[in-house]
UniProtKB/TrEMBL annotation:
Residue intervals of the Amidohydrolase domain: 58-533
Protein name from the UniProt record: Amidohydrolase
Cross-referenced PANTHER family: IMIDAZOLONEPROPIONASE, PROTEIN LONG AFTER FAR-RED 3
Source organism superkingdom: Bacteria
Sequence intervals crossing the membrane: none
Length: 543
């Protein structure tokens, strides 16, 4: 057999104990699959006239990094057409960003944005300030957790929001002391009332946004994403990209099962499992059992300091149980967004009742704060813990002055972001970013996971430093663990014959570098499905 491609470097690293230093430094690929791993003898036996030899002197080849939790379509569209408020630390700074955009738009145009830090309001979020500074402007800003919007009075009036709207889930149009909408729109069904009025974006334009952002993500070392959504225009965007080229990363999509939906909706989503392109596919489903602690919509056993964060997003949790059973019986794995301790406990209880589906394990996403008694249950039930390191390091403050910490209190803060504990209790911990909510560069996220602080802030105090993990554990969380989470551990996540050729080529072995050095470790190439994509610039995704 003659290889299509042969890659040769200084070494191969699987982030486990299968590769001794110097034992292997070359691999051969045929039809998108690894057919041999070893030394220079590969060149003698598998190199033919049409074989392409890729030399990476001094570099290390690793399994391709996969982000366990991202939102590539709506995230790219937000970045392409909206304002990034991530750098705004005060309300004045946020308004300055809005003002710059306002001057460039025609009168009556929407100003949309994302990544708004709810802490800038210093109290209850309200859109009234936008009317004071920008009279009549249509402004809608998504908060950093993507579970709420802050909108101007012009948007409230234009859409006709009253504050009396009712929803199937725990969404709400928040009202002020005067009983009128305050411009704070919480959770998905309420947000949809506003998002449905956003200007339409042509599929070709949206596809351009997505392709661009995925190329940037690939340049940071990613070869795959688990997209925890599949809303319109996802399918059209992926097909548009593949009509003229290839996705630079492999995308596994899991559609959202709406809260309190019924069997008809579940059957429609189950039928989507057959949808796929060359590098994207629909596999699994996502549930949102609760909301976010910042908005008071997470489900904890005990209420927060405002008497909130004590209800599930599903008003009928029995329907959630029935839905998880419905998909499990059809062999479809589930991923449940569960932030509060009671949401995590209930999700684990349901999974214990329904068992494991054929296609792969169930997952629980986020798991922001849990007590000791839940740690062992992940391994016991075979449930993957899907965590986002940058949420803990970049959305909370060590002095607990942030909204999340203040709301849930010091005891629950001390049980937050328990990466180390979950690994020590035998859980499979898959790591991701929640991009664009979190930073998309995996090198940064993995460095943060080791430091428990932003890697680019050496003076910062670590958040729960006892939850640090090693470099090997961190990189395993985006290779072997993400493959297991997708039920693909026998074809992804390792460099071995018979595995798909999804690879990342680093200038240096991450395990030989400090976390600070890892965050800057150049990515020389990524390989997806056997196709080699060389990277000369390592710019981070926009966020």
């Amino acid at each position: 057999m003659i290889a299509d491609h042969i890659l040769r470097a200084a070494g191969i690293e699987n982030f486990d104990d299968t590769c001794e230093p110097g034992a292997a430094h070359a691999l051969a690929i045929k039809d998108g699959t690894i057919i041999a791993v070893g030394g220079d003898e590969i060149l003698d036996h598998l190199h033919g006239h049409d074989t392409v030899l890729h030399e990476f002197p001094g570099a290390t080849i690793t399994p391709g990094l996969t982000d366990a939790h991202a939102h590539p379509v709506w995230g790219s569209i937000e970045i392409g057409g909206g304002l990034d408020l991530g750098s705004a630390r005060t309300l004045d700074e946020a308004c300055a960003v809005i003002e710059q955009r306002l001057h460039r738009l025609p009168e009556g145009a929407w100003i949309t944005g994302f990544n708004l830090d709810i802490n800038v309001f210093g109290g209850d979020p309200t859109g009234a300030v936008f009317e004071e500074r920008f009279p009549g402007a249509l402004i809608s800003l998504m908060t950093r957790d993507a579970h709420a919007l802050v909108v101007s009075p012009a948007v409230v009036d234009g859409i006709g929001l009253t504050g009396n709207e009712t929803f199937d889930d725990a969404s709400q149009v928040v009202v002020g002391a005067d009983g009128k909408p305050a411009g704070f729109i919480v959770e998905l069904q309420a947000m949809a009332l506003v998002l449905d009025h956003y200007p339409d974006i042509p599929v070709v334009t949206a596809a351009g946004y997505v392709a661009h952002q995925l190329r940037l993500l690939a340049a940071t070392g990613l070869t795959g994403l688990h997209a925890l959504d599949f809303t319109d225009p996802s399918e059209a965007v992926y097909r548009e990209i593949e009509a003229t080229g290839e996705l630079p990363v492999r995308v596994r999509c899991s559609p959202l099962v709406p809260a309190d939906s019924g069997r008809g909706v579940w059957e429609t989503i189950a039928a989507q499992q057959s949808l796929a392109g060359r590098r994207w596919s629909v596999e699994g489903v996502k549930f949102m059992l609760d909301g976010t602690a910042d908005n008071g919509s997470a489900w904890f056993e005990h209420p927060d300091v405002f008497g909130q964060n004590q209800k599930p997003l599903w008003k009928d949790v029995g329907a959630y149980r029935d839905a998880v059973r419905f998909f499990t019986e059809r062999g479809i794995p589930t991923a449940t967004h569960a932030i509060g301790d009671q949401a995590v406990r209930f999700a684990l209880d349901v999974i214990e009742e329904v068992g494991r589906p054929e296609a792969g394990p169930h997952r629980i996403e986020h798991i922001e704060s849990i007590p000791d008694d839940l740690l062992d249950r992940f391994a016991a039930l075979g449930v993957v813990a899907s965590l986002q390191p940058v949420h803990g390091t970049r959305m909370t403050n060590p002095d607990q002055s942030d909204n999340w910490s203040h709301r849930i209190g010091p005891e629950r803060v001390a049980h937050g972001w328990r990466t180390r504990d979950l690994i020590d209790h035998g859980a499979v911990v898959a790591l991701g970013s929640d991009w664009p909510i979190g930073l998309g560069d995996p090198r940064v996220a993995l460095a943060d996971a080791q430091l428990r602080r932003p890697v680019d802030a050496p003076a910062a105090t670590p958040v729960q430093p006892d939850q640090r993990i090693t470099a090997r554990e961190a990189y395993a969380g985006m290779t072997r663990a993400t493959a297991f989470a997708a039920g693909a551990q026998h074809r992804l996540g390792r460099i071995a014959p018979g595995y798909l050729a999804d690879l990342t080529v680093f200038a240096d072995n991450p395990l030989a570098l400090s976390p600070e050095q890892q965050a800057m470790n150049p990515v020389l190439a990524t390989v997806v499905d056997g196709e080699v994509l060389l990277h000369t610039l390592n710019e981070a995704p926009t966020k």
